[in-house]
Amino acid sequence: MDSSTEDTLDYLKPKPAESEPLLGKTTSAPSGFGKRHVLAFWAFLGFFNVYCLRVNLSVALVAMVNSTDDGSSSDNATECLEDAPANTTSSSSTGEFNWDSNTQSLVLGAFFYGYIITQIPGGWLAEVFGGKKLFGLGVLCTAILTLLTPLAARWNLYVFIALRVIEGIGEGVTFPAMNAMWGKWAPLWERSKLLSFTYAGAQLGTVFSMPISGILCKSNFLGGWPSVFYVFGALGCVWFVIWMLIVHDTPAQHPGISKEEREYIETSVGTRLKVKTPWLAIWTCPALYAICVAHFCNNWGFYTMLTCLPTYMKKILHFDVQQDGFLSALPYLVCWMCQTSSGQIADFIRRNKYLSTVSTRKLFNSCGLLFPAILLCCVQFAGCNHAAVVAIVTFAVGLGGLCMGGFNCNHIDIASNFSGTLMGITNMFATIPGFLGPAVVGWLTSHENTRGQWQIVFYISAAIYVTGCLFFNVFAKGEEQSWNNPEVSVLVFKGRTINDREQSDSSRESTLAKVQAY
After folding, report:
1. pLDDT of 319 above 80
2. Smallest Cα–Cα separation from 418: which of 489, 358, 467?
3. Are 90 and 84 in contact, with CB atoms under 8 Å apart?
4. Domain ranges, ordered by start, for the chain
5. Rounded Cα distance, 269 and 248, in Å
6. Which phi and psi (to 5°) does residue 97 adopt?
7. What single string gives the DSSP state of each residue in 74-134?
8. Assigned CATH class of 35-73+91-486
9. φ and ψ at residue 94, rounded to 5 degrees
């Protein structure tokens, strides 16, 4: 019996609880910079662009709104004014638009009303038709609409809100599409680090976008706040052209991949053709709901801070718009470092079998949710000490990046064949905080915009973080689920295809007999 037959027979045998490479054996990782790393780099830049396009409004809105007529009884709090930085601009801004706090919350949350719609369709379409075009077009759609943002805002408020909703619809496919691509490109022991590097582009995009947006808003030479949308929209269009020229959906489709790297990847993740999605099994899987809850809870704190932190910096801590951009970016710089390092460490722990996959995921998830919860509860003890408040909020948001080694990679652990669909499902639920969080903040701060009201915002986020940690620790799984191998899939064997029914040990034995007979 040759080695190819042995690999096939090993693959058909029942799998152990802790996932092993799909074909039972794996070649060693090829040395050097491979095509999977090229994919990771350009996907990283894709998410860098995605978040530049998403968060620039959070900073630009401060300059866009005329806060002398925003309809609130207390625009800027006075309780921390005596401790404000020497060059602060605590006076009201004189932007173009007379939008009150509730209107601003509606504008910030509008993106997520569209974003939630295309999560599940995005994952399914990427698995059926490939993630390359879907991811690229999602970014391009967002970039073009960003270029039109100043025109829409000046035309009509409701047109502006509609544009933000459509922008969310376009961008909603990005995370599920990328997760589907990594289901075909990420070897077993490199999943955490490849995904964490890719998705960390979102945090670095936030780090870049916030201060640059502040500078652009202050620059009369570049046209003020509209330049924020023109600059980042143009960058997104340039990225799209390069992405479409360089990236391919699968290792098998890449014309420049080496034989060694292709074999290394395919012996780990397989070469399955398109198969039917087991929707009932997916929707009844407790491990999926563990990811959903953790994802929702993590995003509650993340999105609340992402969309509202610039407002907190200005109205409570009295930083001007340019300082606001730099200081608001600090939490996401820490988050970027935590995301990148957590993926590397998680794969090191799993590869050396210091902990099982599920224990590794629970460890990082707990750290990424409990540490921020504790820190947010500590904000009140810092009083009006600006340095202390900034440090606490920075690490409260930043340490949430440790969840990348937790629930974020867990989709591929339990079902690599349907990781795009799973990401679509969990990210759909996790999008709810995107519009609900800012709405809660707007409601709590619209009549009494004080440090005490903002502390309630922090307490709510802390309680949600703890809930997510507990739920994930009870229900999460680290091994491949049985429904990841559909009722009828296709296995390539010596240039021919055979049916492979894998729902039970008996069906595996039946297929094994077919291979032996062949």
Report:
1. no
2. 489
3. yes
4. 35-73+91-486, 487-518
5. 16
6. -110, 135
7. -SS-STTGGGS-TT---SPPB-SB---HHHHHHHHHHHHHHHTTTHHHHHHHHHHH-HHHH
8. mainly alpha
9. -120, 60
CA distance 152 to 211: 24
Residue found by looking up tokens 């049985």 in the block: 482
**What φ, ψ does residue 34 adopt, rounded to 5°?**
-100, 180
Q: How confident is the model at residue 23 (pLDDT cuts 50, 70, 90)?
A: very low
What is the pLDDT at residue 21? Answer: 44
Collapsing DSSP to helix, strand or coil, 493 comes out as: strand
91 Cβ contact list (under 8 Å, min separation 6): none
Q: For the chain, state the CA radius of gyration.
A: 24
Q: Rounded to whole angstroms, how far apart are CA atoms 111 and 118?
A: 12
A 10 A CB-CB count for 256 gives 8
Distance CA 80, CA 162 (A): 37
Give the burial class of 121: count Cβ atoms within 10 A of its Cβ; 0-12 exposed, 13-18 middle, 19 or more buried: middle
Report if pTM > 0.70.
Answer: yes
Separation of CA 117 from chain center? 16
Q: What whole-number distance in Å separates Cα of residue 45 and Cα of residue 360? A: 27
The separation between CA 306 and the C-alpha centre of its own chain, rounded to angstroms, equals 13
Q: How far apart are CA 112 and CA 105, in angstroms?
A: 12
**Average pLDDT, integer, range 223-236:** 88
Q: Read off the pLDDT of residues 380-422 as tens digits, 9 standing for 90 and up.
A: 787 777 778 788 888 888 898 899 888 988 988 888 788 888 9
Q: What share of the chain is helix, strand, coil (3-state, %, to 5)?
A: 75, 5, 25
Q: Is 87 exposed, middle or buried (0-12, 13-18, 19+ CB in 10 A)?
A: exposed
Q: Is the separation of the CB atoms in 435 and 323 below 8 Å?
A: no
Average pLDDT over residues 161-181: 90
- Give residue-wise pLDDT tens across range 437-448: 777 877 777 666
Q: Would the pLDDT of 98 be above 90?
A: no
